[in-house]
Amino acid sequence: MPAPRIDRIDAPDRPTGLVLMLHGGQPNSSAPVDDRSTSWQRARWMQRQIASRARDQGLSLWLLRFEQRGWNAGAGPEPSPLPVARRALDVVREEHGEVPVVLLGHSMGARTAVAVADDPSVAGVVALAPWLPGDEPVDSLRGRHLAAAQGRADRITSFRSTQAFVRRAGSVAASADLTDMGPVGHYMLRRVRAWNDFAVSRTVAMVQQHAGR
Q1: Contacting residues for 36 by C-beta, under 8 A, at least 6 apart
Q2: CATH classification at residue 104
Q3: What is the four-CA torsion angle of 108, 112, 115, 117, rounded to 10 degrees?
Q4: Taking the complete model, does pTM exceed 0.70, yes or no?
Q5: pLDDT tens-digit series, residues 8-60
């Protein structure tokens, strides 16, 4: 597999933790993720907005670019984003050893984060407006932390499905909670500061919890 494409904003010294951002996508699309992809652009915008706060806490902030825009279940041995995400986690270990990683995913990226959360480097998942169907497995979150946030006006993914998933994940995860972002939609265009605050505070907390365990 070719090296994953990662936009990196690194901590000034060796990081105390690393946040791997995973952008959204579509249920089915083989189109490549390029600079015109709005899902990737949205994640890149958030990365730039929260970078200084992450670096102040000693965290590196990496944004992975998937190869294809779709989840594409059934098109291969596993959905399209998963092998790329696992390879990115390998790159983290190659460069930083066993530094704790928090997966910060939006929509399809959150579903990807949950699927690869069983990687030994992962401390937890922060899921923003996640796409988590009712039958999504939770075993990958065993011993990890999960923090989800979603608006009740989301018409792309389901608040109720996320609520049910978080409840099921609570049986195996170290912690699992859902924050109601109020009457906002899927794309995080309203209450931008609140979304950013949630992303930073929860990723920092998960790294600190990992260090103190």
Answers
A1: none
A2: 3.40.50.1820
A3: -130
A4: yes
A5: 999 998 999 999 999 999 999 999 999 999 999 999 999 999 999 999 999 99
